[in-house]
Amino acid sequence: MASSLPTDAIARVADVRRSFGAKVVLDGFTLEVARGEVIGLHGGNGSGKTTALRCLAGTLTVDSGRVEVLGSSPLRAATRARIGASLGARTGLVGALRGHENLLFHARLRLGWRPARAAVAEIESELGLERMLRVRADRCSAGMASQLELARVLLGDPDLILLDEPTRSLDDEARERMWRALRARSSAGVVIASHRADDLGRCDRVVDLAG
Amino acid sequence: MRGAARAVGAFALRDLAERQAFRYALVLDLAFGILNLVTFSLISRVVSVPDTAELDGASTYFSFAAVGIAFMLVIQSAAAGVAQRVRQEQQVGTLEALVAQPVAPGTLALGLTAFPFAFALVRSAAYLAVAALFLDLESANADWLGVIVILVASGAAVTALGIVVAAMTVVVPQGQMVGRLLVFALGFLGGAYFPVSQLPAGLEAIAQVVPTRFALDGLRATLSGSSDWWGDLGLLVAFGAIGLPIALLVFRAAVRLAVRRGRL
Predict the structure, then answer these.
(1) Contact with chain B for residue A133, Cβ under 8 A
(2) What domain count does chain A have?
(3) Are the Cβ atoms of A106 and B101 closer than 8 angstroms?
(4) Is A2 part of any domain?
(5) Residue A41 placed within a domain
(6) Which residues partner with A86 through β-bridges?
(7) Mean pLDDT lowest for which of B24-28, B60-64, B253-257?
(8) Which of A153, B52, B96, B226 could serve as a FRET partner for B179 with CA atoms 20 to 30 Å apart?
(9) Chain A positions in Cβ-Cβ contact with residue B97 (cut-off 8 Å)
(10) Residue B40 to residues B34, B54, B64, B123, B147: CA-CA distances in angstroms?
(11) CATH code (residue A177)
(12) Where residue A2 falls among pLDDT bands split at 50, 70, 90?
């Protein structure tokens, strides 16, 4: 399928409407994400930040409008191979598994077994996760779980990175590491939903969903 | 295809690692199964059967019921486990994280169910061995290779069942209970605890086509040393070959519906 995106664009959301029952959460939502760009989604509770991320991640359909990632629908499994997403307040980690086991499991869903092991080792070192690798996910602090969740999202070098309130439980040091990791991925587009002014201040562009 | 096999393998390793984290639960589960067998063994000693010819060749009620217990107990446990797992994944958010991965719904379905049901069949074999070695299950003429062949052939059929239960759980909040009821009904109609000839006429007709019936009949035949299990084997394979693709389609539809409704 030929892409209708500009060459440096990774994702485009055009005039999307999504409602849950009578409540319209997104109406006419439009967004374009370019390579190397970090976009902040801002808005109050219920303004549609997570809904927008879900539509981009392919875990929620739209009522009308269009969502494209690298020229095709994120509802396709092949497209989702190019997306790394953390959605909602919950992590995708399995509580009974250790941090390392969780990362290895998710890496194996995307990569061959040997590349998966290499990718996990690389991301663990990049994000300084050594302290939490042997700890079961359900025994991690909220901050540790957030860091593991970020590592999970970055596995397989996705072209589109979607993060929902990623710094909610992070200390300053971990937040710095997160930003360094995101900025190091200059060929990826990043969309971050956040309430935090300091995070939004570091984005290239902020889209206000309340407005 | 290779990616799908890799993903199913990743799920199997995940489930294995999780089982190791909950190893006491497994020990308790095994103890529960063995206690069930012991209970039926004791009941069988005080219950006389007027005509053992009706027990598919088994000479005691325990020899008949042990097969049903060993097979259905673990299938019920696996189905309940899968349903509980899917519900839990939905509640803690890991199901959405899985759907966000480059994994097709069919692969996801197999990943969620293949290991629990394969493991259930291994447990079935272990229960039958315990019943034969330490309880009163007649097995002097047993064809143990036949037992394994029937259990393996049951794999696809019971996994199809598990996938349907998982699909129901994805869509319906009460899917867990519906799934348990469905599996119990299949044991009931399949002749797990009593011969299907005791069922009312209408239900006996349904019992002729449920896959658990073929699995249980096949297991009883192999344990009694009869060679009359090839027909059951063929029917089990046919049921798996037809049922598994249908179950995968049902699961795909369930995930699509959940994605549309925003209920992952």
Answers:
(1) no
(2) 1
(3) yes
(4) no
(5) yes
(6) A163
(7) B24-28
(8) B96
(9) 85-87, 91-92, 106, 152
(10) 10, 18, 10, 18, 21
(11) 3.40.50.300
(12) very low
Q: Please state the rounded mean pLDDT for residues B167-190.
A: 85
Specify if A197 maps to a domain. Answer: yes
Interface check A112 vs B, CB under 8 A: yes
Residues of A in contact with B13 (CB under 8 A): 105, 108
Half-sphere exposure of A2 (CA within 13 A, CB side): 1
B102 and A94 within 8 Å at the Cβ level: the answer is no
Q: Report yes or no: B171 at the A interface, CB cutoff 8 Å.
A: no
| Structure ipTM | 0.89
What does the pLDDT average to over B201-214?
A: 87
| Percent of chain B with pLDDT strictly greater than 90 | 24
The C-alpha of A78 sits at a distance from chain B's nearest C-alpha, in angstroms, of 6
Q: Which of A35, A28, A26, A37 is nearest to A5 (CA)?
A: A35
Residues 6+ apart with CB under 8 A from B142: B132, B222, B223, B224, B225
Contact at CB, A105 and B13, closer than 8 angstroms = yes
pLDDT of residue B210: 87
What average pLDDT score do residues A139-149 get? 92
* Residue from B81, B124, B80 nearest B219 by CA: B124
Residue burial B188-227, b: 16+ Cβ < 10 Å; e: rest: bbbbbbebbeebeeeeeeebeebbbbbbbbbbbbbbbeee
Confidence of residue A7 (pLDDT cuts 50, 70, 90): low
CA-based nearest residue in chain B for residue A149: B97
User: pLDDT tens digit string along B109-164?
Assistant: 999 888 888 888 888 888 899 999 998 888 888 899 999 999 888 888 888 888 88
Q: Which residues of B touch A20 (CB under 8 A)?
A: 262
Using a CB-CB distance cutoff of 8 angstroms, which residues of chain B are in contact with residue A97? 14, 17-18, 21
Of A87, A108, A136, the CB nearest to B100: A87
Q: Can you tell me which residue has the tokens 């529960």?
A: B32
- CB proximity A60 to B under 8 Å: yes
List the 13-32 stretch of B: residues with Cβ below 8 A of A. Answer: 13-14, 17-18, 21-22
- The answer on pLDDT for A89 being more than 80 is no
Q: Give the number of other Cβ atoms within 10 Å of residue B11's Cβ.
A: 23
Is 80 exceeded by the pLDDT of residue B55? no
Which amino acid, one-letter code, is at B75? I
**Cβ–Cβ of B93/A60 closer than 8 Å?**
no
To the nearest whole angstrom, how far is the Cα of B50 from the nearest Cα of chain A?
A: 51
